[in-house]
Automatic annotation (TrEMBL):
Similarity annotation: Belongs to the flavin monoamine oxidase family.
Pfam families tied to this protein: Amino_oxidase, NAD_binding_8
Protein's name in the database: Amine oxidase
Domain (Amine oxidase): residue spans on this chain: 105-360
Organism of provenance: Rossellomorea aquimaris
GO function terms (MF aspect): oxidoreductase activity
Amino acid sequence: MNDPIIIVGAGLSGIRAASLLTSKGIPCRVLEARSRIGGRVLSEPAGNGPDAGMYDLGPTWFWPEHETYIQNLISELSIPAFEQYTEGALLFEQTESQQAERHVLPEDAVEKSMRIAGGVRTLIDAVAETLPEGTVELHSSVKGVQMRDEGTVELEVEKPDGVKKIRAAAVILALPPRIAAGRIEFSPPLPQALSASLLEKPTWMGGHAKVVAVYDRPFWREEGFSGQAMSWAGPLQEIHDASPPAGNGALFGFFGIPAVTRRELGKDRILQLVLNQLKRLFGPAAEKPISLLYKDWSDDSLTTVEEDAERLAAFPEYGPPVNAGIWEKKLIFAGTETSPEHGGHLEGALRSAGRAVKEIVELE
């Protein structure tokens, strides 16, 4: 191949694909529209003093018993991980006026999940460090992909200094399928079946928001609570302990209210409702965190389209898009939504990267 492989998207799938290609001596470039790598992996700092930690506002866990790709990768990269804290009682809240019920689950009732020390961004950074300098190009938004007469592909890329044309032997699209289908102009157009296949894949996390409340210590543990809670009152439907292995404590939650309602309420009102709920569940100390982090993925235009704001009624059926037609062997799809196994998880992102690279190697 005289031209490089171009990877669109520097999330976990995109940078892992680049790392695998590099290890095989196949030149590649990664184009990322954001000002950072990671995509939906977003770990932000918060807390006080030397024990301040990094907290995940995107994916948080992996399950080593059956997610072998990520387990093997963090072992290979010597990335420390620790078990999700689940000791103690969990809470069930039915209404704001009723006291939450306290329950202690039988031993081994909760499947063991793991978290990465320093947040999932630690994994992103470690994979990125395996790439040659300059492989990832930030602030590079792909607007068009054109098939040339000689069989090569040309991308139209908007950069801070203007629009550039970049040639590629093939393109790996490592971004949400709906973003690829709706935001990139293909010439010739994608076959109807392929376009429909992309649009039918909801963006994982696309309609969700996440909040993390950081405290000086995990005080709920002292009172025999695991930090886990389920609520029908809201605004958080599901809450877990997000504390680092030592130092500050943290609680994080997923919202039960839909994206349209969050937009109507606004961030300030949403966060006040969160603090009210945490106080109801865990007492007055929970009302005054030292930091409060919030990310609404439904407002992230580089992650979601408007259709993703709708809440999913069931787990999507993910897998590789079908019927590429003339684009066969020129467009290859990665990203967690294209993995038939563990789609939506970090594991799915890694598996799809491996599959995409295998397809590239078969072109050689």
